[in-house]
Every structure is written in C-alpha cells, then in structure tokens.
C-alpha cells in the first residue's frame, strides 16, 4: 500500500540522531538479512554471531521463527499472503532495531526476491545487508535435522521450499556464506570480518 | 487466540541467556509502558529518558506512533479492533527489545486497562513496568499542542480519548509521573531513579 491508514500523524524529531547513537554504542545499527533453505544453518549461524558480538560489547539480536512466529506473527499462517506479511513485519521490526543501533540478524527462509527487495527498500542505504546462507539442497536434505524434508517428499508438508515451492537465490547479496562446506565458527568469522571491514563495528 | 497458527515450530534454545546478556550489557532489559492522555507528555518524556540513558551507556529505545504507525502498523487504522491490534503488536515488539536486553519505552495513549493487562501478561514478571504519565485532561486540553482537543470538541475527530472516548487510568501502575505539575527533566529523573532503585540499570 502507498499510504498509511492513520491520519493525524507527523514524524516526531527524536532527541537522538543515528550518529549520536553510534557514538554512544561504539558501533552502527545494521540488519543482516539471512536467507537460505531450511536446514542451511541460518538460525545456528545467526545465534553464533549474536553471541560473539555480544561478548565483545556489541548490542546484537536474532529475530527468527522462534521468537516471532509465536508472538508478533502468531496470527499468520503459511499461506502466500501470510508469508509475505510475515516477512514485511519482520522487516519493520528489524528496521526498528537497526534504528535503535543494534546489529540485528534475521533468520528466515525468505525465498522470494521480491519480498527481500521490499524489505531492503524500506531502509536507508547501508542498513540492510543480504546474507545468502548458501548450503545446497542436497546438503540440507541429507542433514534433514528436523525431518522436514522427508515429510515434504512424502507430501505431508505442502509448499515446502526447495521441494514443492521455489527458492529464489539472491543475485547480488552483500555476503554469501558457504555453510555447506565449512563449520559454523568459520561462517561466523566470515560474517564478523565483513562487518569489521565495512566499518559497522566501530563508531568512526 | 490461544494457539499460534503456524505448526512445525519448536522453541529454539538460543546460545545467549537473559543473564548472559545482562552481564554483557551491564543492565537489564525492561519495558516501560507509558500510558496517558494525548498531550500528557509521553513522547517528550520517553525521548528524554532515552537520551539520558543512552548517554550513560544504556541501550534504550522509544517505540511511538512516529516509528510504528508509519511502518509495522501502517495497515491499521483507528477502529477499536485496529487499536487493540496496534497495542498487541507494540507489546510484542517491546517484548523482543526487552528480551534483547534493551530499556524500551513505549509512548501510546493505550487507554484500555484490558489492552495493557494483555501486554503485561505476555512478559515475564518484572519485565513490564506500567508508567502513568499523569497530566489531567484540563492541563492537556489547555496545552493542546497539536490542536487535536479543539478539533475533537468540534466533532472533527471521532472517538478522541478523554473527550468522546474513555481513558481508563491505571489502578496500580509501577510508577506515576506527574507531568502536569513538573517539567520533563524532573519527570525523567523520577523514571531513572526508579529504574536505579529497582536494580534495572546494573548487572548485579
């Protein structure tokens, strides 16, 4: 939609600028939007990065199905329009965390390019980093940690990404992490090294 | 509703406990839920507290109409069911910020006891503090900073809290701040003194 429904609203000039927050925190706010197949390691990787960043004094947080689907988005199911609204809301929450100055990691399959592009479009340049958690379908299906691929192949789960629903790979992600061939520590180091190289972890 | 629509979900054990976050940040996460009439000073007070806390190294953030109504809740209007959903979503986002370890201040009129109680019920004990921003209707209407009371009296704004819709005062808020008779600095000091006294601003 192009206009919010609510009228009588003006944007309030907060007392804190983004720059002031960055100076106070010693790091920038940013969204790391992880996308990849079920079982590719999005949740594991994001929680590892969160822990490593938190231990070094960076305010970091993971949004994933566990803390969003049961709460904010508990009114949504898995129909296409619900999936789109799920991603939209997660994007808006990530935007709030980023504005607050946090490094927020989102861990959702988010299979559609259009949905991811829509989230990117809501944020200022540089606030949204797309991270392709790139384990192939063969690897994910062989691991099948939750047994979901087996169920999907048996037709017990409809519209399962990679099996009976498409996964649209990112064409130009800021970062591609090969979680199919390296362990979570190596992948986490790659993510953090990228943030450091791009200046997100300092106030300068 | 009693059950989330989405199945195939399990709660993921994150790598970081609340306690570990508190130690790393040097303070606890908590929601300060400000409630009060239009013009009572919720937004001004919350932004002042946010700035003072941020300057002393506490990760703080304000959720208000300005950053929520235009984004996350842009699909919602002001009909009763939309107002309730607005508060529900804000509550869920506040819960996420609190879980992340932030001091989050919400600045919404939130006139109904039941809506506020519903938000409180979603959070662990001690995570939700109700703050009554207690300027009386006479004061708020005399100030009428945005000219909304004048419009409401003229019948141009339907269901305006305090004029043509009820405001249900908190019966037992954790804190009541008299913004009708003292300035924003005094009010902000009261809020911060309360947080200090209750141990929210230290990791101990």
Structure write-up:
The structure is a homodimer of 204-residue chains. The first copy, chain A, is α/β, with parallel strands linked by helices and 204 residues long. Chain A contains eight helices and five strands; from the N terminus they run H-E-H-E-H-H-E-H-E-H-H-E-H. Chain A has helices at residues 18-25, 42-55, 65-68, 80-100, 113-122, 137-143, 148-153, 184-197; strands spanning 30-35, 60-64, 103-107, 128-133, 175-177. The first copy, chain A, has a five-stranded parallel β-sheet with strand order 2-3-1-4-5, sandwiched between helices.
- SSE pattern of chain A: HEHEHHEHEHHEH
Q: How many helix segments of chain A?
A: 8
Q: Write out the strand line-up for the largest beta sheet of chain A, numbering strands in chain order.
A: 2-3-1-4-5
Largest interface: A-B, 58 and 58 residues
Distance between the termini of chain A: 37 Å
Structural class of chain A: alpha/beta
Subunit arrangement of the protein: homodimer
Keywords:
five-stranded parallel beta sheet, homodimer, alpha/beta, 8 helices
The gist of it:
Helices cover 41% and strands 12% of the residues of chain A. Chain A is built from 8 helices and 5 strands. Chain A starts with 17 loop residues before the first helix and ends in a 7-residue tail after the last helix.
Task: Give the topology.
Two copies of one chain form a homodimer.
Chain A (H helix, E strand, L loop, with lengths): L17 H8 L4 E6 L6 H14 L4 E5 H4 L11 H21 L2 E5 L5 H10 L5 E6 L3 H7 L4 H6 L21 E3 L6 H14 L7
Parallel strand pairs in A: 1-3, 1-4, 2-3, 4-5
